[in-house]
Amino acid sequence: MTTPMRTHPSEVQISTDCWKAARDADSASKEKRLAAKRAEEQEAAATWAKQFDMPQLEGPEKALDWGERSRHQLMTAAHTALVVEGSWDEADWAELEEKARSITRAGWWIDQRDSEGTDLLELLDAATEADRGTENPFR
Questions:
Q1: Disulfide-capable partner of 133 in 43, 46, 67, 104 (CB 3.0 to 4.6 Å)?
Q2: pLDDT higher for 2 or 129?
Q3: Nearest to 74 by CA among 39, 104, 47, 111
């Protein structure tokens, strides 16, 4: 009968230290990847907003970038579902875009971030005055 090998306590500590270091390195690496992805998404959202004449969002400073990314993602999903894969024409889409321009509260876009693109028109119609900006909607 063989007896199990005994591990010296210092060997256990070294293994634990190595594991913690690897975990911390993985965590830091993950944070860097997420930050880079978020920066890339933010740049795409800002470029898109400028290209399609979307208004600046309103709200707390920390919500503005998140709201802009959420708006871009939902509008892109809606365009794909309704125009590219659906039966909408450009006139239908232009009408939806105008409604989207009237929603300037960043929190509204954040709240809708998990919605389906096909639901966007209904969501825009259900938005309240508090979600709409104070800018002239007729620009």
A1: 104
A2: 129
A3: 111
